[in-house]
Write a structure and sequence with these properties.
The structure is a single chain. By secondary structure, this protein is α+β, with helices and mostly antiparallel strands. The protein contains 10 helices and 7 strands. A 7-stranded mixed sheet has the order 2-4-3-1-5-6-7. β3 and β4 (about 185-190) form a beta hairpin. α2 (about 30-50) packs antiparallel against α3 (about 55-75), α6 crosses α8 and α6 (about 115-130) packs antiparallel against α10 (about 245-255). Residues about 100-110 have low confidence and may be disordered.
């Protein structure tokens, strides 16, 4: 007779949640086929040796798994890092985080981020003049590696500076501007490009870069289209296009954590 205890139910639940998070992260990063491939391989590995007692193929797969795990960690280090960050997301551990962290600097008296309005105002002006822009706001995952690919600015956030950086004759207008710790850290930065085939062909390199950084990290990316003047936002592998300035302000207020 097969016994099924509460511990078994907990074991199955944790395993299911783990697979769900891996599935979601790999879907957002465009590597869903790899997930299904790994799932199929693990299924064969479990069936071959423990269940059907196929010792030879079981031994071969055991050796491959020990090496394969190292290869997977190397190839998908960014996705694994993002997965671990999501496990410790502030929304799930808000109480514990408040015990060890002070309130984030730069908040207004109303509890919202003081830098949201300058960003929205700059995007509104650039949308009117069809000035292309790509602004990335750091969240939990550090963007320091991407900051080093551009020129260090380290300045207070204001709309005039943002507009000057993306002015068409500016040497920094082609790259991304990165905001972290409530400051403009660097500009002219190079970001990873998304190879998602579902992106409309009408969207250019800025949109692909915005989607790419949102897939590789939990950062928030804002794009102002040079061709149409439309404003778009990329976050967690999803791209929302044709936002009005009021919609942009509302979305930033929602997505930027109030710690």
């Amino acid at each position: 007779m097969i016994s099924f205890s509460l511990l078994d139910a907990l074991d199955i639940t944790i395993a299911a949640l783990l697979l769900f998070y891996i599935f979601r992260i790999m879907k957002e990063s465009g590597t869903l086929n790899v997930f299904f491939g790994l799932l199929a391989f693990i299924t064969v590995w479990v069936l071959a040796s423990p269940i059907f007692g196929m010792k030879l193929i079981g031994t071969v797969l055991d050796k491959f798994m020990s090496i394969g795990l190292i290869i997977i960690v190397i190839l998908f280090k960014d996705q694994i890092k993002r997965f671990l960050v999501e496990l410790g997301d502030h929304k799930r551990w808000r109480v514990l985080r408040r015990m060890f962290h002070h309130s984030r600097a730069g908040k207004g008296s109303d509890g919202t981020d003081s830098f949201i309005f300058p960003i929205v105002y700059a995007c509104m002006n650039m949308a009117k003049t069809r000035t292309g822009a790509l602004i990335v706001i750091e969240q939990s995952i550090s963007l320091e590696a991407y900051e080093r690919s551009g020129d260090i600015i380290d300045a207070n956030i204001n709309s005039r500076l943002i507009e000057n950086i993306f002015f068409k004759n500016s040497p920094l207008h082609d790259g991304a501007l990165i905001i972290a710790h409530d400051r403009i850290q660097s500009a002219g930065c190079i970001l990873p490009i998304s190879h998602d085939t579902n992106i409309p062909r009408s969207l250019g390199l800025r949109h692909r870069s915005a989607l790419g950084i949102s897939q590789a990290t939990d950062a928030l990316a804002i794009v102002v289209s040079e061709e149409t003047g439309y404003i778009s936002v990329a976050h967690r592998g999803e791209l929302t296009t044709r936002l009005s300035t009021s919609e942009l302000e509302h979305r930033l207020s929602q997505l930027i954590p109030d710690e």
